[in-house]
Amino acid sequence: MHLTPAFEHLGYGAGSFPVAEQAAGRILSLPLYPHITAEQQQLVVEALNRALRR
Question: What is the 3-state secondary structure (H, E, C) of the chain?
Answer without folding.
Answer: CCCCHHHHHHCCCCCCCHHHHHHHCCCCCCCCCCCCCHHHHHHHHHHHHHHHHC
